[in-house]
Specification:
elongated
């Protein structure tokens, strides 16, 4: 057998060796070129993997009440995030995070899969420091901490409708947090940092721009009055199993809102996952027909005409007034006979106010209602504020005008009602309302003749002394006010079993400092009247507020 020729082996060996030598020489040449002649390339590539521009969180401004008590503050927290490309997706790692963060393992796996091509995804936002430290001690590659701010509300549900809340990114979503978001939020800063292969910052190389903190906001709200109003309203709504309720406490001379509360409420620190209407500030968004509380302005319109005085006699006989196919009657179909204008207001006579209003041009009442603020926003700047409804007709049917005179066919918010009564309280002057503390006098406009306003104040005092507002009395103080009860419109017209009850009052009459409006919607009670349901709540709130503000009594004999 012939031997196999192996002469070609040396040639193949030297050829392979030569090729390897060429490759090695090329690599060495490239390395020398990059490290000596083009060193900036390697630096750029290295920096791209270790240098980062990161945001510096900005402190959101604090919201405080008029006494500098905090209503909303920001605290530092950590958020847990993950880089799916660096995260070792093992059962041990996933279960460890699941156990600490209380997130189902399947949810973590789904998050990683959904963000597989990305380098960032949040696992959990705004965790407490202890939890953040526990996650960090796991030392899982690809899992990092991010420093952020979280909003905290010390007053909880008591001030939630006014203050509102922010979202997870600390941006205002409701209330004054939303209205003044640009003022409060500040601006992010930027830093150039060096990170290790685990994503941890090992050095801050440069401050590109400093974070700019948001500005603080001081409200006109007084937390003491806010708490009193909240507790009183909550007990009233629960006692009468009402659908909802609102309270507004206003300084008529400055337009400052000292308290505003609603029921139902919510805790902004632990918000419900679904909004069933509890986030809404009903005092500025929800409208209602006021019923007899509007009679004060019908009577003011009559006085303003010069045709009537507080002592003018109005004949309400025989206890009913036929207007076309409709009949106007007083409460319980009573025949109140002949009444002075003062008694018309004191007894809340529908026939009395209807007769006075029908004796004047329709524009006379409509003009006054518009001047005191009905049918238009108050200018408070609160998000979602309603303007209410004040309808103008080309031709007024007598019955429609009559019902307007005693509070039907017009709708308003609780804030509008308090604002309008503030005009009577402050000698006919209408001051713009505000949620912010006013550091200087405000310019007010004359909405009602000063003499008419003073007459109305005296007449409204008789309502509390011997009329429908007996339960609104406050010992030691002279109080003026008016009750209101209105049927709610249902599917088939006005319902006799659904009512909005209200009381709005002023004190002390000798020098009015406060207006308090209480509105309770759909109480379930045998006597669902403003004088029974809303007036006692008013008395409690007004009594407490007068004491909190240390306002001197003006009726030492009471």
């Amino acid at each position: 057998m012939k031997n196999k020729d192996t002469s070609f082996l040396p040639r193949r060996f030297w050829l392979v060796l030569a090729l390897l030598a060429i490759v090695v020489c090329a690599l060495v040449a490239r390395m020398v070129f990059l490290t000596v002649f083009d060193r900036s390339f390697l630096l750029h590539q290295g920096n791209a993997r270790s240098l980062r521009i990161v945001n510096i969180p900005a402190y959101r401004g604090m919201i405080a009440d008029r006494n500098d008590e905090p209503l909303a503050i920001s605290t530092l927290v950590d958020s847990i995030w993950i880089n799916p490309q660096d995260f070792p997706n093992t059962k041990q790692n996933v279960e460890g995070l699941s156990r600490l963060l209380n997130i189902p393992s399947r949810k973590i796996n789904k998050l990683i899969k959904r963000n597989a091509k990305r380098e960032f995804a949040y696992l959990k936002r705004s965790v407490n420091p202890e939890l953040a430290q526990s996650v960090q001690q796991l030392a899982i590659p690809g899992v990092y901490l991010k420093r952020e701010y979280k909003r905290y509300y010390p007053e909880g549900e008591v001030a939630s409708h006014v203050v509102g809340f922010t979202n997870i990114d600390d941006q205002g979503q409701e209330g004054l947090e939303l209205a003044y978001n640009n003022w409060l939020r500040g601006s992010l800063g930027k830093q150039k940092v060096l990170k290790d292969r685990y994503g941890h910052i090992v050095a801050v190389l440069a401050d590109i721009s400093a974070a700019k903190a948001g500005r603080n906001l001081t409200l006109s709200i007084d937390s003491r009055i806010q708490y009193l109003a909240y507790q009183t309203l909550k007990m009233t709504v629960q006692k009468y199993h009402a659908k909802s309720g609102s309270v507004v406490v206003l300084n008529p001379k400055t337009g400052e809102i000292l308290a505003m509360v609603n029921q139902p409420s919510f805790n902004p620190n632990k918000r419900p996952t679904h909004d069933y209407g509890q986030f809404r500030n009903r005092a500025v968004t929800d409208i209602f027909e006021p019923g007899s509380t509007a009679k004060a302005f019908s009577v003011a319109s009559a006085l303003d005409s010069g045709k009537y005085t507080p002592d003018t006699i109005i004949d309400t006989n025989p206890g009913r007034l036929k207007l076309g196919k409709n009949i106007v009657h007083d409460d319980k179909w009573e025949n109140n006979g002949k009444l002075t204008v003062t008694k018309v207001l004191q007894k809340s006579s529908n026939i009395g106010v209807a007769k006075m209003t029908l004796s004047l041009p329709p524009e006379h009442l409509l003009d006054l209602l518009s001047r005191v603020g009905f049918g238009q926003r108050t200018g408070s700047g609160f998000p979602g504020e309603s303007s209410g409804s004040l309808i103008y007709h080309d031709k007024w049917r007598p019955f429609v005008l009559a019902t307007l005179a005693f509070g039907y066919g017009i709708s308003m918010t609780s804030l509008q009602l308090a604002h309008a009564y503030g005009v009577i309280a402050y000698n006919g002057l209408k001051c713009p309302v505000t949620f912010l503390e006013r550091g200087k006098p405000v310019k007010c406009t004359q909405a009602i003749n000063s003499k008419t306003a003073q007459q109305m104040l005296a007449m409204l005092e008789t309502v509390v002394q011997g009329g429908t507002g007996l339960q609104a009395k406050v010992k030691g103080y002279r109080v003026a006010g008016k009750t209101g009860t209105a049927n709610v419109v249902g599917k088939y017209g006005y319902s006799k079993h659904r009512n909005v009850t209200s009381f709005v009052g002023i004190a002390p009459v000798s020098d009015p400092q406060l207006v308090v409006a209480v509105v309770v919607r759909e109480p379930k009670y045998k006597f669902p009247y403003g004088g029974v349901v809303a007036a006692p709540a008013f008395a409690t709130i007004m009594r407490g507020t007068l004491r909190i503000l240390d306002i001197a009594p003006d009726d030492v004999n009471n």
